[in-house]
Write a structure and sequence with these properties.
Layout: H1 2-21, H2 24-27, E1 39-43, E2 48-59, E3 62-73, E4 76-87
């Protein structure tokens, strides 16, 4: 059992280390999706969360500022849930 535990622990540490080194926020904290600039809001060791302003959205309930959020893992960006903030 101890033999398997050591191998699993070493593998886990290596995977976390590789994800930490290839974190997009580690090398270029202020660039998002090629040359479009985004704002880094959270920079954890193995992933980063970015926000990109898409502008104002107008509807019958009022004006909203629309933000797209992205998560960066292993030099790739994936879109996560968008954020709408009401503008007074």
């Amino acid at each position: 059992m101890k033999k398997y535990f050591t191998g699993i622990l070493v593998t886990l540490i290596m995977v976390i280390g590789i994800l930490g080194i290839t974190n997009p926020g580690f090398k270029q904290p202020y660039q998002l999706l090629d040359n479009q600039e985004g704002k880094l809001i959270h920079n954890y060791f193995i992933f980063s969360v970015y926000v990109h302003n898409e502008g104002l959205v107008k509807n019958e309930k009022g004006n909203y500022r629309f933000y797209r959020r992205y998560i960066g893992i292993a030099l790739h960006f994936y879109e996560i849930s968008s954020l709408r903030i009401k503008v007074e």
